[in-house]
């Protein structure tokens, strides 16, 4: 459990990336020592991993869920116990099917399998996957090739090799394998898989609206006026970004306001992307959406916005409880957390067209969708210029959740070789280049705006082209080799 909890320091905002291999080594060492308790060993490791790593979820449950302390702690414990089932499954299968000395060959496949399950069962929650911890390590060079999924498999393989090094010779071999992985990653990072194409000027606005005021009807007007005022000095930029649900009114009720912004953006040869909630009065469907106002292409003579125009994105991965309530008929009314404002959205398609803003083609992701590489990858094409993600992390207060969210966005930039524009209500907002470096950012919990040049890229990384196929093939080959060695 302590080994799992120590993983928190490997991720943002701490970034002590060597912890990951050591924590995995301790867990596998314990797995080796407990002959018939592989599932329990993995589950306890996961309990420490998630209990400390996503403790920030408790902030949203306690502060905005309306539950007493015992209720919020209980829900947090239940979530962590559920997520711990996945490393437990990987440990159990490895220990059940293979002897200890073959764990470095077998565990990566079962780990990849369990993490794949965690990414989609009950809509998926792939947060805090091990590979994210390596964004600032030499292993980062492998992200454009193997993706975060592959880095995670590599880490458990190296950790298992280190755990089973019982002799000096074995320790030297494990050390050599770790050195090769990190040195080769550093070498790979010197190669550019994509080509910088052109630079544009972008700006974003951070309104810092308190979560308690987000959906108060009397605050709609002041919030919308605040974003309009903060944007006035930014109209000389090619594209301006507002965060998730920056316009707090339902889209059909905000048409006059949107038309004004659309006209202003066109007059200044600009485009504006904002989050908003759309609602269909005929069938009561609501969508957490991203829309474009102003110029769609640079040569346009006027703004192109009209209600329900096609230049928009509807969120696909909805956050359980926060955006969609499972077993809704049973749970709504039991506690305030199951009846939050805006917690009953319809789901957009998995793959949707890129949004077009003043000639810039962007693959969209709303909030925690950026943690789903397969969905992001499905929307990154040869002609995609950048990835855009709008979010609202005010739910999580002054915790390490927003820093982890930014770290995930940095990994997506490196995997797909595209700059990532991340605009949030209260931070962390910033621009990320195609190498995963944060080039500029806004301070958290402050009202502000930020302008920056953004270099757009062309080309496809190996991970962007093949996705997880490469790591599935490698881990399966290792599993087959382990199986043959086991039979011998």
Q: Which structural class do the helices and strands define? A: alpha/beta
Measured as a percent range, the helix fraction is: 40-55%
- Our Rg estimate from Cα atoms comes to 23 Å
What's the oligomerization state? single chain
Output the helix-strand order: HHHHHHHHHEHEEHEEEHEEHEHEEEEHH
CATH names the topology of the largest domain as Nitrilase/N-carbamoyl-D-aminoacid amidohydrolase
Number of strand elements? 13
**Range of strand content:** 15-25%
CATH superfamily of the largest domain: Carbon-nitrogen hydrolase
Family: Belongs to the CN hydrolase family. Apolipoprotein N-acyltransferase subfamily.
Keywords: Acyltransferase, Cell membrane, Membrane, Transferase, Transmembrane, Transmembrane helix
GO molecular function, one term: N-acyltransferase activity
Membrane topology: Multi-pass membrane protein
List the helices and strands and how they pair.
Layout: H1 2-6, H2 19-33, H3 38-53, H4 57-64, H5 69-83, H6 85-97, H7 103-118, H8 143-163, H9 168-189, E1 195-206, H10 220-231, E2 239-241, E3 247-250, H11 255-267, E4 271-280, E5 285-294, E6 312-314, H12 328-331, E7 355-357, E8 360-366, H13 373-378, E9 386-391, H14 401-416, E10 420-424, E11 430-432, E12 438-441, E13 448-458, H15 462-466, H16 469-487
Helix pairs in contact: 2-3, 2-8, 3-5, 3-6, 4-5, 6-7, 7-8, 7-16, 8-9, 8-14, 8-16
InterPro entries: Apolipo_AcylTrfase (IPR004563), C-N_Hydrolase (IPR003010), C-N_Hydrolase_sf (IPR036526), LNT_N (IPR045378)
EC number: 2.3.1.269
Pfam family, one: LNT_N
